[in-house]
Write a structure and sequence with these properties.
Helices cover 27% and strands 22% of the residues. The two termini are 30 Å apart. 10% of the residues are buried.
Length: 124
């Protein structure tokens, strides 16, 4: 199983290199790759956030770096020989469903997972 984590803070996921998950990675049972969304922005200052289109409070992630990051992962999956394989995408946000054991069982059956970590109010 390959888990790709799209995030603005990839260093947060160094914790997965330890304990049970670290051992599973060492045995080749699972692969976890945090990917910095900022690496895919076209902005020279690596800016990925902006005010909502049309105004309003809060900040949103720009769609362009998120899309380009996602597209790069999908391309890698295709190049790995699993062309028929479609990665499942999970958008992690406080407004989403509460993670439960049944979801864990469902996700465990997947070959490729992409977690998109929402650090702002959304994506515009």
């Amino acid at each position: 199983m390959k888990i790709n984590i799209l995030t603005l803070f990839p260093e947060m996921f160094d914790i997965f290199n330890h304990s049970i998950i670290g051992k599973a990675q060492d045995k080749g049972l699972i692969e976890i790759e945090p990917i910095n969304i900022r690496d895919y922005t076209l902005n020279k200052h690596k800016k990925v956030d902006d005010y909502p289109y049309g105004g309003g409070a809060g900040m949103l992630m720009q769609a362009q770096p998120v899309y380009d990051c996602y597209h790069a992962i999908v391309q890698r999956i295709a190049e790995s020989g699993r062309k028929g394989q479609k990665a499942r995408v999970i958008y992690v946000t406080p407004q989403g469903k509460t993670f439960q054991q049944q979801m864990a069982k469902e996700f465990a059956r997947e070959e490729d997972l992409i977690f998109l970590c929402g650090h702002y109010e959304g994506i515009d």
